[in-house]
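All the exercises in this workshop are built on plain-text protein records. There is nothing in a record beyond a sequence line and a structure line. A learned vocabulary of local backbone shapes supplies the integers on the structure line. The question running through the whole workshop is how a given chain folds. Here is such a record, shown just as it appears in the course material:

***
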Amino acid sequence: MGGKYIVLLLVPVFFLAPLTANPALTTTTTCHRQIRVLKATLSPQDSSNMELFFFISSGSSSSSKKGVHANGKTDGKVVEAAAGDGPVLVELFSSQGCATSPAAELLLSRLGRGNFQLDTPFIVLAYHVDYWDYMGWKDPYGSSLSTVRQKAYVEALRLDTMFTPQVVVQGRAQCVGNDEDTLLSTISSAPRFPAPSFQANFQRPTSESLQVTLTGALRSKVDNNGVNVMVALYENGLVNDCPAGENRGKVLSNDFVVRKLEKLCTVKDISTKKTVSGTATFTLWDGFNSDRCALAVFVQNSSHQILGSQKFELPNDL
């Protein structure tokens, strides 16, 4: 069995002194709850390499600075989004099991409502990770796929740790999710790219699924290294009580929560005007309401940098 395998293990640790002596162990002082990353290379019998990463958490969750917490069928409806200078993609990694994430969620909700005077257009997405679920409250929107996505950014940005709340802007810069000044300046200074010129055709093949077909140009030249065109279905206005964990007794409000993320297609070596087409199908959740949902499309290269993004509101009668 060939190839490279990544295994993620979340292990609560109650004593750390023996670990810190290991030269393969790196640590960060970003927050009181530190995530230490241990990397070991194994040699299976088939001589292929296996990399094993241990993400180990310990201690208090509160931050000493900005509050970082480490780790039936319908007819098709066609929607066209305006083309032009593309928005900046702002991705929050958060958890209802993190005491410092609600402040970041509120900040991103205010950002989405237009409470800040920014000249830069943007799209906000919030991914709920699952690596704090063991601490007493299982995030109802948490996903291992969100954790994997955050880990990819940690590696691409050459960071030492995963933490919540974290914001990644255009796949190129990151900051603590509740650091308002740094967040706004990072968005304002982010590079921008032409927005794709997709048209979206929405259908409901079944009552439990949503299908979107996107056709248009990426409006950015793509070389042989290729890009992935990703489609995120997200939901606003989510409110729930939290009876346990670090946010025990609080009412939590979440917007821009990514409920589903699919790859539309992979594109290589095309011009800015060449037409691209693909279809993504989403399995819907109980209580799906199109009035609270929207779609974000973004182009991402192999270095995880965002090269263009576009947003679609869902038809009201979908």
